[in-house]
Amino acid sequence: MTVAGAKRSDRLLKVLSGYQHVLVLTHDNPDPDAIASGWAIVAMVREKTSLPVRFVAGGAIFRAENRRMVELLEPPLELVDQIEVPEGTATVLVDASPQAVNHLLGDASLPTAVIDHHQHEGRRPRVPFCDIRPKVVASATIAAHYLREQHMDPGPALATALTYAIRTDATGLRGFSAADHRAMRWLSLRADHQKLTDIENAPLQPDYYADLLLAMQNTFVYDDAALCFLPRAGGSEIIAEVADLLIRHRDLTRVMVGGVVGGDLLVSVRAKAGSGDASDLVAKSLKGLGHGGGHRQRAGGKVSNIARGERVSEDLQSELRNRWLGVCGVDAQRGSRLVPKREILENL
Ligand SMILES: [Mn+2]
């Protein structure tokens, strides 16, 4: 079904035209990039075909900025617990890998189309349409490119979502590609910059400060690597957020943050450019225990059904600590606290 020389978005639309329904899916607990890029695909399908289309993801949205984004921009996303895929439905997986287990399709069935920018293990998925570009910082860059190819006006809400997606997904990544710059320039003229500012300054829940305090108190430093197990995590996003904050530490080059959400241990790993591959570090740390993947500088993973309680057991903590120090090539040692509160107070 390949149309030689055609634009990629034309090829996608051609593939979809062989179906009666379109289901756009993205990863669980969708982040701005997942929301915006899926939305753009929905908008394109709506404008260019007469096919009924739905946009779904599992999980929930916790991060204050992302909730504000959804409130202000109203993406056509439905959060659901499970999906039914009726006969004749094309499934379009956006901002996620078919091999990953962090989406509603799981690894049980292959989608019709994949649009993504994560590093994929092994061979490209054998699907009718596949556009994987690990060199762009966000799936939103690919989606914005499709809209331009189709001469579509995204409108201020979608343009704002795509802009916010690229800004947030670029956090900690080195190297905006030429395509990312082009997308940002195009989107910037169309985005609502007041709304963008409102999203970035979303009101924070009182709990957020408690989560942050607990995170700082539970972060241990081992040479230039850090490890933090959150005693509690309201959602997956606080884990990622703490990892993003820690990796900005001048002297740290690799960090791992873990927390229990819904009975699963979720981890976020960050590596500074030139200090190893985060997706590799997380995959090796969780080998045999769970799954992990992502980008060179930002990655995540999951160990399913670890405990009934909110905390990670001491045994699992020490196992992961040993593995983490091992993959980071750091000698086994007692960690020092990131924030040695007593010393700080004594030195006042
Ligand atoms: Mn993304």
Structure description:
By secondary structure, the protein is of the alpha/beta class. The protein folds into two domains: 8-199, inorganic pyrophosphatase (n-terminal core) (Alpha-Beta Complex); 206-337, Diaminopimelate Epimerase, Chain A, domain 1 (Roll). The protein has twelve helices and 13 strands. The protein has helices at residues 8-16, 32-48, 64-73, 139-149, 155-169, 178-188, 193-200, 206-217, 236-247, 278-285, 314-328, 341-346; strands spanning 21-26, 53-57, 78-79, 89-94, 113-116, 129-132, 219-222, 225-229, 254-261, 264-271, 291-294, 298-303, 336-337. The strands form two sheets. A seven-stranded mixed sheet has the order 11-12-10-9-8-7-13, sandwiched between helices. A six-stranded parallel sheet has the order 3-2-1-4-5-6, with helices on one face. α3 links the parallel β2 (53-57) and β3 (78-79). α4 runs antiparallel to α5 (155-169). The radius of gyration is 21 Å and the shape is globular. The model has no long low-confidence stretch (mean pLDDT 92). Bound molecules: manganese (II) ion. Residues 33, 95, 117, 138-139, 169 line the site of manganese (II) ion.
